[in-house]
Amino acid sequence: MDRLAAAWEDPRHRAHLRRYLWLISKGFTVFGFAVMAYLIWASR
To answer: pTM, whole model, 2 decimals?
Structure first.
């Protein structure tokens, strides 16, 4: 936790962390939509 707090204090590291977390969340979102689309089209 101390490393995360120290990284969060530095604006450059904070930008990298936020970009990394944003990419992870976008990946889950895209994966979720892909699964929903597959389930919709596979049921036809």
So the answer is: 0.68
